Amino acid sequence: MPGTPQEEITRSDAVFSGKVTQLTPVTNQDGMGSIKVSFEVGQVWKGQIPQELLVETSDSSASCGYSFENGKEYLVYAYSNEGQLSVGLCSRTALLADAQQDITALGQSTAPSAAPEASPVAAPAAQSNQTLLIVGGLVAIAAVAAIGGWRYTRRA
């Protein structure tokens, strides 16, 4: 059961209103189905949200997936899940027309940021993976050099 708007904004990583522009079904690596939901963002209450945003939800309400409809506007309470914003059935996410009480309780909103990106929480994970690849590559080079040096001194 969702909490009050104030409780939910505290729990959420992003809160925004937006119009669904595309729904894309996908199958995850674990075989579970999900839907990538593209939004044209109108207002922001929490997070650095771009004008165009991609969030994910399960493809089934039995798995707590939220049933978005293309072309409709929503007030969305999203959370970060492995670097991707996700929306669940148990949040206060609702059709914008039905969310006037929340909008009043949330107070002043801001405009979305100008630069579009896939997800406002995806960059740190991507940066972390790049750092791991660089460090792993350097360790491999050092190991090859050490083995080569050991073999060279052993022959001499």
Topology, pairings included?
Blueprint lengths: L4 H7 L2 E14 L5 E14 L5 E7 L14 E9 L2 E3 L7 E2 L4 H7 L15 H34 L1
Could you report the average pLDDT, rounded to the nearest whole number? 80
What can be said about the biggest beta sheet? Answer: 6 strands, antiparallel
Report the end-to-end length measured between terminal Cα atoms: 74 Å
Helix content: 25-40%
Globally, the shape reads elongated
Radius of gyration: 22 Å
Q: From N to C, what is the helix and strand string?
A: HEEEEEEHH
Per the CATH scheme, the topology name of the largest domain is: OB fold (Dihydrolipoamide Acetyltransferase, E2P)
**CATH class of the largest domain, please?**
Mainly Beta
| Name of the CATH architecture of the largest domain | Beta Barrel
Number of strands: 6
How much of the sequence lies in strands comes to 25-35%
Key words describing this protein structure:
156 residues, alpha+beta, OB fold (Dihydrolipoamide Acetyltransferase, E2P), 6-stranded antiparallel beta sheet, 3 helices, 6 strands, 31% helix
Give a concise summary:
31% of the residues lie in helices and 31% in strands. With 156 residues, it is of the alpha+beta class.
Give your account of this protein's structure.
This protein is α+β, with helices and mostly antiparallel strands and 156 residues long. The protein has 2 domains: 5-120, OB fold (Dihydrolipoamide Acetyltransferase, E2P) (Beta Barrel), CATH 2.40.50.120; 123-156. Helix content is 31%, strand content 31%. The protein is built from 3 helices and 6 strands; from the N terminus they run H-E-E-E-E-E-E-H-H. It has helices at residues 5-11, 100-106, 122-155; strands spanning 14-27, 33-46, 52-58, 73-81, 84-86, 94-95. Strands 1, 2, 3, 4, 5 and 6 form a 6-stranded antiparallel sheet that branches. Strand 2 (33-46) and strand 3 (52-58) form a beta hairpin. The longest helix is centred in the C-terminal third of the chain and has 34 residues, at 122-155. It is elongated, with a radius of gyration of 22 Å. Mean pLDDT is 80; it is low at 118-129 and 135-139.
